[in-house]
Amino acid sequence: MHKTLITTVAVSCIAFTGCKVKSDMGQVTYTGEQAIIYKTNGDYSKNVAVTLNDSHSSIIAYPAPADVYRNGKLAYPEALGNGFLLDNRGINANTAFLNLTYEEYAKLSAAPPLADMMAQIKDKEPITEIYNLGSRSTYKNEVADINRIISKGDLSRFKKLK
Fold first, then answer.
1. What was the pLDDT predicted at 80?
2. In the predicted structure, residue 3 carries a pLDDT above the cut 60
3. Which of 39, 105, 117, 121 sits a CA distance of 20 to 30 A from 30?
4. CA distances from 54 to 45, 87, 95, 161 (A)
5. Cα 128–Cα 65–Cα 12 angle in degrees, nearest 5
6. CB 119 within 8 A of CB 66
7. Is the dihedral of CA 145, 149, 152, 153 positive or negative?
8. 3-state secondary structure the chain
9. Beta bridge partners of 131
10. Which has the closest alpha carbon to 152: 83, 87, 82?
11. What percent of the chain has pLDDT over 70?
């Protein structure tokens, strides 16, 4: 019971507020909401994202209709330079997009059954490039700061996810 409580508190701290974590190696790492930028092979900026398994054969994660918001607004990505988008919803290398828009999805009383969502996928591999630029809190003016990084054309110092 005690171990479960500690794990729950640690996961909540990392997921919702970001916190300082000390590893077994004595290194201190800061966690929190990450700045993920990505490109797709089409315009999916209004479409709801789901996460597929590594073989892209089934959905392993999807939002509840109430979860397509960020800070009280629909969680559309921010348009950046050079065709990149700044994620506001949880995009990763295994993301696929549904035919449903954020507006349509937010009006649902519950998430559709998995079989229905699989049938609604527009493209099982829409992500062409994706990078983790670190904690969002390190950027004073997030969009402008990230656009400066993109315009310099050197994303090699950041973690490439695909």
1. 97
2. no
3. 39
4. 22, 20, 10, 13
5. 80
6. no
7. negative
8. CHHHHHHHHHHHHHHHHCCEEECCCCCEEECCCEEEEEEECCCCCCEEEEEECCCCCCEEECCCHHHCEECCEECCCEECHHHCEECCCCCCCCEEEEEEEHHHHHCCCCCCCHHHHHHCEEECCCEEEEEEEEEHHHCCCHHHHHHHHHHHCCCCCCEECC
9. 37, 160
10. 82
11. 81
Residue 23 has pLDDT above 60, yes or no: no
Residue 119's identity, in one-letter code, is A
Question: How much is the pTM?
Answer: 0.77
Distance CA(24)–CA(22), nearest Å, equals: 7
How far is it, in rounded angstroms, from Cα 49 to Cα 94?
Answer: 10
Q: What is the maximum alpha-carbon separation in the chain?
A: 51
pLDDT interval class at 89 (50, 70, 90): confident
Instruction: Copy the structure tokens of residue 119.
Output: 């049938």
